[in-house]
């Protein structure tokens, strides 16, 4: 139990260290209706927003020790940012403890308020962790966004270098292809010349299959006259 209390004290903010005081607050009587038991109270403290309809409330004079049990018991039946509408259970007993005159200061205590605040503390812890995670993500994305121009410059520089290198290699490849084409063209001409020379020599040294041949004029009547 000591360990549990120590953890609660360490993890809570200073505003909530004294858990036993979270239920107590001050207010002033604005109006009262003894027949119905309604009492309207003005409050002015930040944690008042955690009071809810239906919460139980004890009311007693601020100059009376709460431990002496001089208090009135009731419930909240309506509330706004600055006002509470209470319904007291035993208005006659309450009249003996509190005068209920307009402007009278009163002390109030609500264990429901304490529980509501402690619940809010736990929710706040969860939300704080969630916020921390979201803030970390936001920072990461913000850094990426802020670093975008530098990243673009880096990409441009990288590909500018690659483009220059590619253009240089392209130029070399074109020059090499041009040189190869000049060489191949010259070789082509040389080999065509040599081929023509060989064809000419083949023609010169061509040998017929037969040394005899038929004179065509003897076979064509139009080339001679018969007697």
Describe the protein.
The protein is an alpha+beta fold and 227 residues long. The protein has helices at residues 2-11, 91-97, 111-146, 148-204; strands spanning 24-33, 38-43, 56-60, 72-79, 83-88, 105-109. A six-stranded antiparallel β-barrel has the order 1-2-5-4-3-6. A hairpin with a 3-residue loop joins strand 4 (72-79) and strand 5 (83-88). The protein is rod-shaped. The model is unreliable at 1-10 (pLDDT under 50).
Task: Summarize the helices and strands and which ones pair or pack.
Layout: H1 2-11, E1 24-33, E2 38-43, E3 56-60, E4 72-79, E5 83-88, H2 91-97, E6 105-109, H3 111-146, H4 148-204
Number of helices: 4
Which range does the strand content fall in? Answer: 15-25%
Question: Low-confidence runs (pLDDT<50, min 5 residues)?
Answer: 1-10
What is the end-to-end distance? 157 Å
What is the arithmetic mean of pLDDT?
84
Total beta strands: 6
List the strand order in the largest sheet: 1-2-5-4-3-6
Instruction: Give me the CATH superfamily of the largest domain.
Output: Efflux pump adaptor protein, beta barrel domain
Secondary structure class reads: alpha+beta
Helix content: 40-55%
Q: Number of folding domains?
A: 2
Rg result: 55 Å
Q: What is the general shape?
A: rod-shaped
CATH class identity of the largest domain: Mainly Beta
CATH architecture of the largest domain: Beta Barrel
CATH topology of the largest domain: Elongation Factor Tu (Ef-tu), domain 3
Largest sheet: 6 strands, antiparallel, barrel
- The helix/strand series, from N terminus to C terminus, equals HEEEEEHEHH
């Amino acid at each position: 139990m000591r360990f549990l209390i120590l953890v609660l004290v360490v993890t809570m903010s200073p505003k909530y260290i004294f858990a036993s005081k979270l239920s107590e607050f001050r207010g002033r009587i604005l109006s009262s209706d003894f027949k119905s038991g309604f009492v309207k109270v003005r409050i002015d403290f930040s944690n008042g927003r955690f009071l809810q309809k239906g919460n139980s409330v004890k009311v007693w004079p601020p100059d009376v020790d709460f431990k002496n049990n001089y208090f009135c018991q009731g419930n909240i039946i309506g509330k706004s940012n600055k006002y509470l509408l209470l319904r007291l259970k035993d208005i006659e007993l309450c009249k003996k403890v509190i005068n209920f005159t307009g402007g009278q200061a009163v002390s109030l205590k609500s264990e429901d308020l304490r529980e509501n605040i402690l619940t809010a503390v736990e929710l706040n812890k969860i939300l704080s962790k969630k916020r921390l995670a979201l803030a970390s993500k936001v920072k990461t994305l913000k850094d990426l966004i802020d670093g975008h121009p530098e990243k673009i410059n880096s990409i441009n520089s990288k590909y500018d270098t690659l483009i220059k290198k590619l253009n240089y290699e392209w130029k070399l490849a074109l020059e090499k292809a041009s040189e190869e084409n000049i060489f191949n063209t010259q070789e082509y001409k040389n080999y065509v010349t040599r081929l023509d020379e060989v064809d000419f020599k083949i023609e010169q040294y061509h040998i017929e299959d037969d040394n005899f041949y038929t004179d065509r004029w003897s076979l064509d009547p139009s080339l001679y006259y018969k007697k």
